Structures are given as structure tokens and as C-alpha cells.
Amino acid sequence: xxxxxxxxxxxxxxxxxxxxxxxxGPSTGAPPHGVLQGxxxxxLFCEMLRPGQPTHPALSLLLSRLAAMPIESLRxxxxxxxxxxxxxxxxxxxxxxxxxxxxxxxxxxxxxxLTPPEWRQIETxxxxxxxxxxxxxxxxxxxxxxxxxxxxxxxxxxxxxxYCHQMIGFGVPFGTYVHVCGTDIVRDETGRFxxxxxxxxxxxxxxxxxxxxxxxxxxxSDLMTGLSVRGVDEYGLRLHHAMAEIAPQSVLDPxxxxxxxxxxxxxxxxxxxxxxxxxxxxxxxxxxxxxDGQVWMRTTAGLAPVHTIYRRIGDDFLDPDxxxxxxxxxVRGLMEAWRRGSVAIANxxxxxxxxxxxxxxxxxxxxxxxxxxxxxxxxxxxxxxxxAEALTYTLDNLEKLVVKPVAESGGYGLIIGPHATRAQLAExxxxxxxxxxxxxSQPTVKLSxxxxxxxxxxxxxxxxxxxxxxTGKETWVLPGGLSRVALRKGxxxxxxxxxxxxxxxxxxx
Amino acid sequence: xxxxxxxxxxxxxxxxxxxxxxWLARYMERIENLARLLDVTNTFARDADDTRxxxxxxxxxxxxxxxxAKHTEANLASVAAxxxxxxxxxxxxxxxxxxxxxxxxTLRALxxxxxxxxxxxxxxxxRALTAADLLPDHFTATCGMLKEGTQAHTGxxxxxxxxxxxxxxxxxxxxxxxxxxxxxxxxxxxxxLAPQAAAGDVEIDAxxxxxxxxxxxxxxxxxxxxxxxxxxxxxxxxxxxxxxFPRSVGLNLMQIExxxxxxxxRYQLRGTRASLERLDELNATMTHRNVADMVNGKLSPFLDYxxxxxxxxxxxxxxxxxx
Lengths: 509, 323
What we know:
The complex is a heterodimer of chains A (509) and B (323).
Chain A: H1 8-11, H2 13-17, H3 57-67, H4 71-88, E1 91-95, E2 100-104, E3 107-114, H5 116-140, H6 145-148, H7 154-158, E4 180-187, E5 193-199, H8 206-219, H9 221-224, H10 235-245, E6 256-259, H11 268-278, E7 282-283, E8 288-291, E9 294-299, E10 302-305, E11 308-311, H12 315-318, H13 334-340, E12 344-346, H14 357-371, E13 383-384, H15 388-396, E14 401-405, E15 415-416, H16 422-434, E16 439-443, E17 449-454, E18 457-466, E19 468-471, E20 475-477, E21 482-486, E22 500-507
Parallel strand pairs in A: 3-22, 6-7, 6-11, 11-12
Antiparallel strand pairs in A: 1-2, 4-5, 4-19, 8-9, 9-10, 13-16, 14-15, 14-16, 17-18, 18-21, 19-20, 21-22
Chain B: H1 15-43, H2 50-60, H3 64-68, H4 76-85, H5 93-106, H6 113-127, H7 139-160, H8 165-199, H9 206-215, H10 219-225, H11 232-241, H12 249-265, H13 273-285, H14 288-295, H15 299-322
Helix pairs in contact in B: 1-5, 1-7, 1-8, 1-9, 2-8, 5-6, 6-7, 8-9, 8-11, 8-12, 8-15, 11-14, 12-13, 13-15
């Protein structure tokens, strides 16, 4: 399955956070008709009907076009899209002993729409968050003021598995550590946006954003006719620009490469996409070597210097000299070359500490601390059980909360209160009391829905959003992002391995 | 290319990708050759000794031992299964398309999206073939599908593949494979035909010559060139030294030389010395006069030499650019 995040664990967290609404009641939007006849979001926030929100003319037009579309036509287009994805190889490969099967990530035709004010909030909110993440990373690898001022517990940062001691005192251009950031955002039943998690290591999924738009244009362009939707084709240009910005200053025309683990990686299609969109070579570790403190690639003309590496392999595999000595995927001596300033690496090493679940809980405070601003997009309300008041609250409300272990700090097991038995709750209560610092708790969120083509017709299905931010000197956010949808009724899991699909995301101009 | 046109930007080509491009072309070309050979054997090479005809294909590919480890008799069903369906046979269509697709996946950021899409769809079609597709009533259609698929690939490549360094390596791979296949074809078929040729051309079974030329996709061109009939010397000369026949060994070697020279002059690549020297020598032997000399009893050792040199040429190119 494609890893839509820096780690396996993170991709599960949406399911851990969200519980489906039990509430009912008709939405207040225009009465659904045509294929939307009988569509009922049951009190959840519907991204298309938008109860209680001002209508946008483009959205009304889209809605009426969609409603007028016969269901057979939608199904035919969906079948075309599916075949097209397979033929184009917009797939991930599942390997077993003897076979390799190409799977597609299901594409739902019905787009998810964001209005200009909504997008303004997301865009500024993501930029703010990326700024704070970079300042935080710079600080914890230098002065550590945030620790000295007691904003976040020292142990949580310095003892974190994502904290990289080799990064201490090492400066990166423009203070940018997180060059590509994927911020997972959800929406509650009132339509309020909330950040669910940050992906600051090697977030994936951006290829699907662009390919989904191309797919819409191929199979559903009549739905889009005359509507002003912001384009997504700039991504490669913007990324290349940022990669060139961070290259060593002395180089006029820097050589950028995309470093992939190779064709067996589940996200390989995206690596191809990125190299192609940037117009740069797609390399593997074996194509690179370090000599005299400089990174070189093996070309038909001999060795050629490399100035920026957009790497899509994890920290642990990057340099067998420094990290996992058994790694065959990385480049021996890469860290030393980086330290000497002859090459730039994106994302920087050691960003994993910033997208840790426990650190996430502190993000609103981190934003206030560095920027003296309120978070533009709030976190999902999070109680840090290490703090007495939060622990008491969590213990008192366990049956209503989701309690998660903080990542990679020794905690294990989580509990979804509303789904747990009395015995499970009792047992968990003891575990929590025994080691409160290992846990955070969050209320269950009634995730927003979007009309989605299913076997039972057009039905509401839960979705989330992952915008992608590219940062060199400045931060730019790709308009829209990856909207993941839980295709199975009632499920909250939008992860691709468990029945998750994606939608095209339209930002209205 | 006119000097007034803009030359492609000198972008570096990863050595591993150059090698992959060369192999991609070879594997695709191999499928076409194999399909044509199977089809022609089934259609035109029928005579009293059916087994002998099917054995020819096994000889061309050096597969006698591997084949008899799995099958007891060489006939349409067994040989076609061995070459079209058998995934464990490294010389099968299945193995070739799998390798071609794997190379294409590796090169996906480099080749055109249309090339990738076609290979991807074509490979699923090949993977879906079953024994039913090899039955006598359907076999020609199956071979036609394989030929058309590779020819579509060739056409798409011609029309969409950007002609910088990688394209030159691709073309070198295609011509290496063609030269190699024609040499093998001539070597195995000529054995059966040469003794008769020595006895006098009148005795020659026109059907066998016909099959040989069709297997190389050269039958009509040969008729046009030599309307009076088949002569061993002329057929060998046509397949080895003709300057217009797309699958003649000599023409393919000349085209390789042109591409290598382009890599040297346009891209200033220095790895061409060994391969160009070897080509020089090999090209010198591809004359009609030399071939005529060889046909009198020395053709087989000569073809062995050519095959070895083609393999060495491939190795020189890999050594010169990709190591």
C-alpha cells in the first residue's frame, strides 16, 4: 500500500481519532435531487451541501450538474477511470512470494470542493504551522530555548526516537528543515477545520493530487466546464525551485536528483512522478557515491556532481556510516558531505521529532511560543496526560475519549472509549494511571462527509485533506491537496490498505 | 540534424539508465523476432518432418536441453507453450516482456508516458495468454498480437521518445538485437539448405528459402531484389550485407556505428573507443564478396564469429558507458 505518511503508525491515527456520528437530522442545504435523491449526511458536515454555510455560485452549479447526471453515466465514467489508472500504471505493487499484483488506489469521481475563504484559512494555517515546525526544529538542534523555557518536556524531545543527535549545531539553509510537509486536516460536524497530524519526514500522496485532476479532466470534464478551479500543475516547478534554492550557494545551475529506494517501493510511482515533473534524474543509492566530501552520480560521461537530493528514503537508511549500517538503499558518507555543505538534503534529517504524536499535542503552544500568534487551524483538542489536570479529565471521561500512546516513547495500546467494553475501560484506566506520560487523549470527532459513488448510489462518506507545502526560502502550498475518502460505509479509515480512496480536490478561484 | 536547429540540452544520463534503455529495446525486439519465427514455422515451414522445423527454433535460441527437460516431443503445442507461456523459460515471450516492463518501470521518468502505457497494457495482455491461444485455429492470431504489440511499441518510440542520449542507447539496443537475431536465424536455417545449394539451385526447396526470408521479414524485399529465384549466396548476402534491408546484419552494425559516433561527437562521451574499433573490424567483413567466400563451407564459423563479436560489442558498450 502507498505509505501516505512518514510512518506506518501515523497512517492509522485517523481511524483512532474518529468515531462515526450516531446523530441524525436532515441537513439544511437545497433539497437533494437526481443522483443525490435520498442523500442524507445525517447531521454530519457535508462538503457539498454545506448546511448553514453561505453558498458559492460555482458550488451550486456543480451540484445541479452532478444531480442531473444519470447514475449509469457516473458508473461508466468510474469504470473508465479505473481502467485508465491501471493502464497508466498509477498503481502500487503488492508483492508476494511468486507474484506481483498492481493495485490502484480507488478514485472517486465526485470532487471535493473548497471555497476561496476556506482555502485562505488552510493555506495561511499550513504556512504558519510549517514556520513553527522549522523554528522548533532549529531551536531543539541549537539553543533549546523551548526546552529551557519549559514549553515542552525536555525528555519528550531529547528522548524521542526521531531526535537526531548528529543534527545538533548543524545549520540548514534558511532554517528550513521541512521542505515538503503534508498536514492532515479534518473537519468536524460544524465544518470547523482541525489539524490531525503533521507529516514532516517524507510525506507522500502529492502525485495523486495531480493525477486525480488529470483524471477529472479526462472522464468528467463536462462537470468542470466554465468553473474557475485553481490549477495543480505547478508542483514540479515549485519543488524544483525550492530544491535549487537550498543547493550550495556557489553553484549556478544546481543538479537536483530524486533519491528513491527503487521499483519495489510502494510509492515508486510517486518517485517517478516527482523526477519527471522536476525534469531531474530518478536515482537510487547505488547511482551515487561520495568522494572528497562531494556527492557524485554515475553517468555515461563518468561522475557528475549532485547538489540537492530530494530523498524519499527514511533517515535510518540514508547513510550506512552514520545510521543503519546494513542499509543498501543509502549512500555511504552522505551525512559528512552534507555537513561540509557540498550538498543539500530535503527533507533534512531529524524532522521526525516534529511530527511525533506527543509533540503534536504541544503544537498550539509551540506556535504561540515562536510566532506569538494563535494557531490559524486548531489542533484536535488534545489532553496531555502527563499533566495532572488533563489526566483527571481523561480518567473521568474515558468512555467518551480516544486515548493514544505517544509515539515511540514506550507507550503501547490505544483505546477508543465509545467502542470499548466496561472491562477494557477498567483495564486501560489502570494502565493509564500507571504511566500517564505515555498517553494523550482526544474527543471523538464526527468527521465531515462528501458525496461518493458507491454500490448503493451516491452516499455520504468520510473524508480528510492533506495539503502539501513546499518550502525553500518561502513556503508555497499546492492549491487543494489530497482528499482521502473512506469508501466503505461507516468506516473512518481513509487509509488505502483498508478500503480508502481519493478524490480530486477543487479550490475555487 | 541541421546545425541551425537547437541541440538538446546536455543533461546527464545515469549509467544504469543507459544500460536499462538498451535492454528495454533488446527485449521488445526479441519478442517480435520470436513471434515471427513461431508464426512462420507454423505456417510456411511445414514439410514431411514437422519435428525438424520446430527443432530449428530451439536451436536458434540454444534451448534444446532446457526444452527436453520439460517436453518429450517438439511440435506446435510444446514449442509454443515453451516460448509463449512458460514463465520459467528465460527465452520465452513471458520472460522477455517481464524484463522489458521491469526496465521500463525503472526508466519511467525517462521514457515517454505513451511508451510506458503501451508496454504496461501489452504486458498484461501477454500475461493473460493461455494454452487456448496456442491452438492451431488461433495460433497465427496470437503471433499477430505479439508482433503488433511490439510494432506499436516501435512506432510509439519513434514518435514520442525524446532524442537525447537515452534514445541513442535505445537504438543501439534495438540494432544489436536485430543483428544478433538475423545471425542466429541464418546460422540454423542455412545448415539445412546449404548442402542442397551445393548440389545445384534447381533442386532447392523454394518453400524453405521462403520460410527463412519470411522469418526475417525479408521475403518480399528479396523477391524484388532477386526475381529469378533463390541462390544460397544471394540469400546469405541479402541477410548479412544488404544496405537497405532493415534486418540485415551489416545495416544494423552501420546504424550502431552512427549512434556511437553521435554519442561521441554530440555528447562528448569518451567510452566509445573499444566499441568503435570492434565495429570497424566487424563492418569490414560485411561485404557481399566476403559473404560469397564464406558460403562455400565457412559460413557457420563465420556466423559464430559474428555472434561472438556482437556479444562483445554489447559488453564494450556497457563497459564504456555504464561502469
